[in-house]
Amino acid sequence: MQELLGRLTSLDPDASASLKVIAYFDALVAGDVRVEALVRAAALLSGTVAGVESPQQCLRVAPDGGPAADAGSSAGWPGVNVSPDERVWIERSGHAHANDAMVLERFALAVGVLRTRRRSVTDDPVQLVIDVTRSEQERAAAATRLRLGNGQLRVVATPPAVHPTGPSTLIATAHGVVRATIVAGTDSMADHAPAGIGGPGDTMRLPASWSDALLALRLTDADHPRVDAAVLGVLLPAVRAIESEASRHPDVATLSTLDVRSAHTLAVLVEADSVRAAAGALGMHHSSLQARHEALGRELGYDPRSPLGRARYQLAALLLRLDRH
């Protein structure tokens, strides 16, 4: 699938985008998610409010993945009938976007498949227990269904194809379909990557752990295949707080201009106990690295080995990874 996507991207961007829509909904159907997750996926993919309406429910989701603020129905909006009494739609004003028809087609097909599988929709206990919008009573009941107990639990966020051991489900997010798995420890995570690991806590803290895990997953890269929110500590909420302005911050922009060799040299300089130790790790002469250290300091506008400089570098490096994800 990925190879085909790559070929289509170079030949026909619209066809590539259509195939991504198909893959997105297929992954959700394979995960046997709730209809709510399909509506969320349609909203995220189309960039506008999406909904499903039947005699049993009328559900609308905003493009940020949350519930739509106002009441509404399918009347007047482009949509597709799932069955004689059920319809899906997107609330697109003006001209249709290139993949609106594909989103609606796959949205309707996915809803139809799920309805066929199970005529009565029951809450997915994993989705429920990590959903911050649910009441404590609902989450406690879901935790009981999952037999989670009272120990320290974490949520692990991975791509759909990565399966850590534990209760899991697929969730449509603003950054794609992600598998959420509840684990009692991280010892079993060594063979699973990429993975974002949320902070530990009891069952009532699982929504926060899921939020942290999702952000941690976006901080993974080739050099950091597993990111643990607990290890990042206060850096994680700091990244979340300024994420929207990350690419515009001068510290991040400067790091993004470094070539691969300079970026690696800088990372080793920051992590090493001394410039001499960094020189040994890099296979460089101490005086040569000292000169490079000074040059990098001038380029960055701060000394990356000073206490404040290290903090600036670490935060900027995390934001750059997030921006490139």
From TrEMBL:
Top-level taxon of the source organism: Bacteria
Name this protein carries in UniProt: Uncharacterized protein
